[in-house]
Write a structure and sequence with these properties.
3-stranded antiparallel β-sheet, disordered C terminus, Protein Transport Mog1p, Chain A, single chain, 12 strands, disordered N terminus, alpha+beta, 7-stranded antiparallel β-sheet
Length: about 325
């Protein structure tokens, strides 16, 4: 059963069905109120027997428009690579922005390095989950403090900070959030220089709690950020999948942790504990507005505004890079 949630946001109809690649081709982003007649009708192949949009067909058509990559993938910037198993696939920064902002309803944010998805689950399926990738060049993170961190005390501090920020979230139009606790306590692999943990979050007025599963891979001048967001119901498949992700993401020669040169490279002003606490989340950029996880609970967002048919027709008329 494919669930549909509704997000009424003025002007997002065109955005839902225009990828950033299409904006680049046309030289301008889609605007509000584009002429429906100019856009044409919803493609017949997307309609069910009742004349309404068939969500499964829409899902398949959307997936076909995304540029999927498998196997070994060099990430933008040349600092790191993915050696994907046959259980995963990758989309680049432009398609990732389309998924995050237009399909999942997150506000526009800094460009990622792309996203990873399970091979057998699409981005708008009910049980969908994906991993957004970014890189923070804040300097070499000294991991000497990793073994001394009391993660129970750290959790209490994070819960207080989350509660204290709720007034600001509401003022900015975002729902309040509660950090329920660890869905997976922090673990640091000192040999591999990889850190992972998961949080359970309660978003105000949301029936299901949110799962935020994070990985940090330390490198010579910074670290990779890999974040998966789904509902707590998906904890087990996400947990299993993220353990696979840990194995196939790595820095390239010259950018690894052991390549650090104290004579040339900057040292970050914080250690491993700060990466978990998220006090520098604004610098990493990815999901800086975490409170605005308005729609990603494994559901497709359909916009309840006039012109959706025209927007769908426009999207499926775009060229594929």
């Amino acid at each position: 059963m494919h669930k549909l949630s509704v997000l009424s946001v003025s002007g997002l109809v065109a955005g839902l069905l225009f990828s950033p690649a299409t904006w680049a081709e046309s030289g301008e982003a889609p605007t509000d109120g584009q002429d429906d007649a100019q856009a044409g009708e919803i493609p017949a192949e997307l309609l069910g027997e009742d004349g309404q949009i068939d969500v499964k067909k829409l899902q398949e058509a959307l997936e076909a428009k995304l540029e999927w990559k498998t196997g070994t993938v060099e990430l933008p910037g040349g600092k790191a690579k993915l050696k994907l198993s046959d259980r995963f696939r990758y989309i680049g920064p432009e398609d990732a922005a389309f998924v995050l902002e237009n399909l999942w309803g997150n506000p526009p944010g800094p460009r990622t390095l792309g996203m990873i998805f399970p091979s057998d689950v699409g981005p708008i399926a009910d049980d969908s989950w994906g991993v957004a990738i970014s890189y923070s060049e804040d300097g070499y993170v000294d991991d000497d403090d990793a073994e001394d961190i009391d993660y129970d005390d750290l959790l209490k501090d994070m819960q207080e900070s989350t509660a204290d920020a709720n007034q600001m979230r509401r003022e900015q139009g975002y729902p309040a959030m509660t950090l329920v606790g660890w869905a997976e306590p922090p673990h640091y692999d000192k040999a591999a220089k990889k850190l992972y943990w998961a949080q359970e979050l309660k978003v105000e007025n949301d029936e299901k709690n949110t799962l935020n599963y994070d990985i940090r891979v330390l490198g010579r001048r910074g670290y990779l950020v890999l974040s998966a967001i789904s509902s707590m119901e998906a904890l087990q498949p996400v947990k299993t999948g993220m353990q696979d992700v840990l194995k196939f993401v790595e820095f390239n020669d010259g950018h690894r942790y052991e390549d650090f040169d104290p004579e040339l490279d900057k040292v970050a002003a914080y250690g491993v504990g700060a990466l978990v606490a998220g006090k520098l989340a604004a610098k990493t950029g990815l999901f800086a507005a975490l409170a605005a996880i308005l729609a990603k609970s494994g559901k497709l967002i359909v916009l309840a505004v006039a012109g959706i048919g025209a927007a769908i027709a426009k999207f499926f008329g775009r060229s594929k890079n």
